[in-house]
Amino acid sequence: MGKHCGGSREVGSRIQLDGAWSFQAQLDALRACNREEDWTFKENSVKEVTDRGRTEATARLQKALGESQLMPRQKRKAIELENDEDRKITEAMKAAEADVRKHVRALLAPLKDLEQVPRSADSDAAALAIFRQLRRLQVTVECLKSTRIAAELNKPRWRGANAAPEVRNAVTSLIKGWRSMYRAETGKSDVLDATRARKVRLQAVDLEEKIFAQYQRLKDYRRVMELVTEELMQCRDVSDRLLEGSLSGYDLVAKNAGRLRIAARAVDVVDVEEPELAQPVI
Fold first, then answer.
1. CATH architecture of 84-186
2. Is the pTM higher than 0.85?
3. Which residue range or ranges hold the TFIIS N-terminal domain (predicted)?
4. Fewer Cβ atoms within 10 A, N terminus or C terminus of the chain?
């Protein structure tokens, strides 16, 4: 509490009020003196990004990229054929697919016959010859589904403990290649392979560096990082293009930085700190 001293009252240790002030002036001075500081603005717009914050942002970007890569690819809408040449190309592709299925079924029949005979050097050699022919074919996901060749190769006769090592290795190699092709075409996978995981990690570091190069203040840095993360999670195509190199990290960051500036102008945000009220001097 202040204490009386003649015709004036001392408030705290910074200002003094006396009868020379009008009532409104004294009230305004008291309000300015007792007002609590609002540090929210300073924390958001003046505070700089810390090393720990950058590490956490990189981890968040890496997580978004990784989860995006596990999303199924969106099927592209069929483009209407405009001329006879386009139709001929499409028909040729369909014919090639049908031809591959025909060859796979032709190889599947003798393979099933070999499954019924006792294992011998001759039967193993015949099976290996079939596997070599299968490897040369451009097998697709639709071909695997229609012929069920993978189900046949997964049988114990070809992959079991009693199979010849060279037969088992050949089948394992075929199945592994088809599995990679299937995941690439459908986008169905529970985990990233080592190569993609490494690319995702490096791309996350690159994105964070490009964001930090433009924004060192916490408020804008955080917002641009959130916008980039949201875009990565909306569509796998963005992360695919980043990892393939057809979309640069700089362009992605610049695009979302532009979105931030447009949003700021739309709400007429003036990002300046209000000056403190001058203290009256008596």
1. Up-down Bundle (1.20)
2. no
3. 106-185
4. N
